[in-house]
């Protein structure tokens, strides 16, 4: 099993918690961590600075497309960040945890 982290950001902690809960309940993610961040970016040729909630979603690589679809379904942004990060190295025990808690 190949493990990955999927990252996305939300405009509110409530939206982030909802996405995390659905991903865990549907066994698409083994763990989702939420962090409050401040994001700086250009959107439609305008400088933006917003408080957001970052989700780090630990899962199987095979679940990326399902997670992407679920985020697009539940997310309020027109263009949500959905990034896959490969886990290059992790303890066998943690990889087992991810495998045991996802479909």
From TrEMBL:
Q: Kindly list the GO molecular function terms attached to this UniProt entry.
A: copper ion binding
Cite the InterPro entries for this sequence: Ion_tolerance_CutA, N-reg_PII-like_a/b, N-reg_PII/ATP_PRibTrfase_C
Family membership: Belongs to the CutA family.
SUPFAM superfamilies listed in its UniProt record = GlnB-like (SSF54913)
Provenance organism: Arcobacter ellisii
Protein name, per record? CutA divalent ion tolerance protein
What the entry lists under Pfam families is as follows: CutA1
Q: Which GO biological-process labels does this protein carry?
A: response to metal ion
Q: Which residues form a coiled coil?
A: none
Domain of life, source organism:
Bacteria
């Amino acid at each position: 099993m190949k493990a990955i982290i999927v990252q996305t950001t939300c405009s509110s902690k409530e939206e982030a918690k909802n996405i995390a809960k659905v991903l865990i309940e549907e066994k698409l993610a083994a763990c989702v961590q939420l962090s409050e961040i401040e994001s700086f970016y250009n959107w439609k040729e305008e400088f933006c600075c917003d408080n957001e909630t970052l989700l780090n979603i630990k899962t199987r690589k095979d679940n990326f497309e399902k997670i992407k679809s679920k985020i697009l379904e539940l997310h309020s942004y027109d263009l949500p960040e959905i990034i896959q990060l490969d886990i290059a190295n992790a303890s066998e025990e943690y990889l087992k945890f991810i495998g045991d808690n996802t479909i």
